[in-house]
Amino acid sequence: MAFSLDILNRLPAYQRWLILLGLMVLIGVGYYFGIYTGKKTELKKQEQSLAKLEKNLQKLEETKKNLAAFEAKAKKLEVELGILEIEIPKSSEIPDILSYISTSGKESGLDFLLFKPGKEKKIKDKNYIEVPVSISVKGTYNSFAVFLDKVRTLDRIINVRNINMKRSSLKGGNVILQISCTAVTFKFPK
């Protein structure tokens, strides 16, 4: 049995229109389930992927903006570290500083009776170590003031603590004092 167009011609017009409408519905349903829903699902996945990529791009742009600020902050911290390294010596520079203290005292006219480095002490909650030096000298008040001024002008931080002065003698109309104190410098731990 072969299909012939004569069969369609013999059918009334409304039936031909119904057959045409049925074929269109079948093609539409086939298209909807065969092509459209698959593409719609793929489009949804692509939109989700695009949303993730846009979100990542936004995060990267924020990071890029913050990167410049972080780099500026890092440079500022490096400069501050350089300044601190000038003010607080490394371990290898401690003998030079102690030598400078001793030389400054002698140049100021003080006689050293005691120059004894003490036990280093790590300061809690800080990132440095105190290096104390017990000092006992004889000399005039002015000589000691000149010594303190020389220590003050040093690039390194040196604190002079626990100053104790006692009259020792008279020499050439000047009062000679016996002065004891603790000079404290600082260093970074290794």
Folded structure, characterized:
Strands 1, 2, 3, 4 and 5 form a five-stranded antiparallel beta sheet that branches. The chain is α+β, with helices and mostly antiparallel strands and 190 residues long. A hairpin with a 6-residue loop joins β2 (121-122) and β3. α3 (94-107) runs antiparallel to α4 (141-152). The protein folds into two domains: 1-87; 91-187, Ribosomal protein S6/Translation elongation factor EF1B (Alpha-Beta Plaits), CATH 3.30.70. The protein has four helices and five strands, in the order αααβββαββ. It is rod-shaped. The longest helix has 75 residues, at 13-87.
Give the secondary structure arrangement, pairings included.
Blueprint: H1 5-10, H2 13-87, H3 94-107, E1 111-117, E2 121-122, E3 129-139, H4 141-152, E4 158-171, E5 174-187
Antiparallel strand pairs: 1-3, 2-3, 3-5, 4-5
Helix pairs in contact: 3-4
Q: Pairing-aware structural class of the strands and helices? A: alpha+beta
Count of helices?
4
Number of domains: 2
In sequence order, what are the helices and strands, one letter per element? Answer: HHHEEEHEE
List keywords for this structure.
25% strand, 4 helices, rod-shaped, Alpha-Beta Plaits, five-stranded antiparallel sheet, 190 residues, alpha+beta
Explain briefly what this protein structure is.
The chain is α+β, with helices and mostly antiparallel strands and 190 residues long. It is 56% helix and 25% strand.
